[in-house]
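DM from R.C. (forwarded with permission)

"hey, sorry to bug you on a friday — could you get me a structure for this? deadline for the figure draft is monday and I only need the backbone to look sensible"
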Amino acid sequence: MINFTDTARRHVVSYLEQEAEELAVRIEVLDSSPLAPRYDLALITEAERAPEDRTYEVDGFRVVVPTGSAELLEGATVDWVESMAGSGFKIDSPNLRPVGSEAPTGDLAERVRQVIDTQINPSIAAHGGSVSLVDVRDTVVYLQMSGGCQGCGMASVTLSQGIRRILGEAIPEITDIQDVTNHGAGSNPYY
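My reply, with the result:
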């Protein structure tokens, strides 16, 4: 079930009242990436609804969810937010946790931290850089670079030829390493 805050519900009802025909609210997960999940919320006609879509009655209106998004949206909350950047609907799903929303735990995370602390960070410290573990999802590791590595033109080389090699040799079950650093915000890159 998808929940709507009172503010979101009022905005949906307001939009629906402005339409001449009966519409439903379609909510879909466009990208389930743990880096930046993307959603779509749109008003649709009955003709636009696919036979396999799931339909729910929520707060006096119909919500249509494509089958592929149903499990990801279970327990989600739709809110209406207003900020300096604009206003609109915001969807938060407990099934699509953004990377770094919780501290990584478990055996794999501990082994990655140990390799970072004992092998990777000592080797990049000479350039004023460091790497920290942000998250581990299945066998994918998410890292963040800081100091001289954040914004450095050689950060991708450090990742591909150094960090990937070291972690891959030490922990072969890692299938991918993702850099989640905002390199544009680096204030003192080495190069």
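R.C.: lifesaver. The first strand starts at residue 3 and ends at 4.
me: no worries. Residues 139 and 175 are 6 Å apart (CA to CA).
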